[in-house]
Amino acid sequence: MAKTAIAYKEKMKEISVLSLICSCLYPETRKNIMGDFEDMDIKPINKRASGQAFEVILKPSSPVSDAAHCVTSPPKRDLSLEDIQKKLEAAEDRRRSHEAQVLRALAEKRDHERIVLMKAMEENNNFSRMAEEKLQMKMEQNEENRMAYLASMMERLQERERRAQEVRRNKELREEVTA
């Protein structure tokens, strides 16, 4: 699949932009241009309002073309025991540094969670304390209102009692005067 993609890219480089433009403008020459490639067929698809469409079909690669497209890797140099040791030490250092970084991130996250939890607990305590104080103040106000109401009722009752005694005394005085 990779070789066919490489072959396709190379062939697309070979087709010049000018020939594509000419093939769109001059349809009679397009038929000649479309079938000139050895390992690729280009077939026009019906013309659309948006422009011309082509179908590109890649032929299977031949053994001859495999040798031409084979890219060799650069020769590897021999590694000494010292070089291998240095690479292993560097990898171990990277691993340790990554582990330390992950641990630092976890510690920061834990600290942040702890701070958030403490704030939430403090806000909850403040809310509870404020609610309790508000309730206490309401209860005190209710008690004061109740005591004031009872005092006013007692005062009215005493006033009625004094009035009743005065009326009784006046009645007795009238009875004595008339008798």
* Distance, first to last CA: 141 Å
Structural class: mainly alpha
- Biggest sheet: strands side by side, in what order? 1-2
Radius of gyration: 52 Å
- Helices and strands, in order, run as HHHEEHH
Largest sheet: 2 strands, antiparallel
User: Unreliable segments (pLDDT under 50, ≥5 consecutive)?
Assistant: 29-33
The counted number of beta strands is 2
What overall form do the CA principal axes indicate? elongated
Averaged pLDDT: 82
The helix count comes to 5
Helix proportion:
over 70%
Instruction: Estimate the strand proportion.
Output: 5-15%
Task: Explain what this protein looks like in three dimensions.
This protein is mainly alpha-helical and 179 residues long. The protein has helices spanning 2-14, 17-25, 27-34, 63-69, 81-178; strands spanning 40-48, 51-58. It has a two-stranded antiparallel sheet. β1 and β2 form a beta hairpin. α2 packs across α3 (27-34). The longest helix has 98 residues, at 81-178. Residues 29-33 have low confidence and may be disordered.
